[in-house]
Amino acid sequence: MLAFKKFTDNLFSKKTLRYVFTTHFWGPVSNFGIPVAAVLDLKKDPELISGPMTGSLIVYSLVFMRYSLAVTPQNYLLFGCHFVNELAQLAQGFRYVKFRSSTKPEKEEVQVAAVEPSK
């Protein structure tokens, strides 16, 4: 019971409440929509993955992971958001490369068959 009281006292302290009502907190919380969507997209058909967009999001998350540690005070919540997004986007990137490399020969065969005149 003492641990619970200590936890609630800390949770509702002025310092914690002051932090919760800042953009240092709400910016990363609202930004978590990106990695949540990326994780949910891992179940979708890999044909829908955009390679350029996935590449852009990989770079974006790397930049903002660095930025989150460069600001004062360091924003670990923002770092966590972009770390999760980085992992999800890398997984999407691997799915994209695997799908494109496995389906490319089939598409070439179809195009060759379509170009050859029928006898």
Automatic annotation (TrEMBL):
Q: Does the keyword RNA-binding apply?
A: no
Can you supply one Gene Ontology CC term for this chain's record?
A: mitochondrial inner membrane
Q: Name one Pfam family in it.
A: MPC
The GO biological-process annotations, alphabetized, read as: pyruvate import into mitochondria
The highest taxon in the source lineage is Eukaryota
Q: Which InterPro entries match?
A: MPC (IPR005336)
Membrane association type: Multi-pass membrane protein
Q: Which UniProt keywords apply?
A: Membrane, Mitochondrion, Mitochondrion inner membrane, Pyruvate, Transmembrane, Transmembrane helix, Transport
| Signal peptide limits | none
Where is it localised?
Mitochondrion inner membrane
- Indicate yes or no for the key word ATP-binding: no
Q: Which family does it belong to?
A: Belongs to the mitochondrial pyruvate carrier (MPC) (TC 2.A.105) family.
What is this protein for, i.e. what is its function?
Mediates the uptake of pyruvate into mitochondria.
Name the UniProt record assigns to this protein: Mitochondrial pyruvate carrier
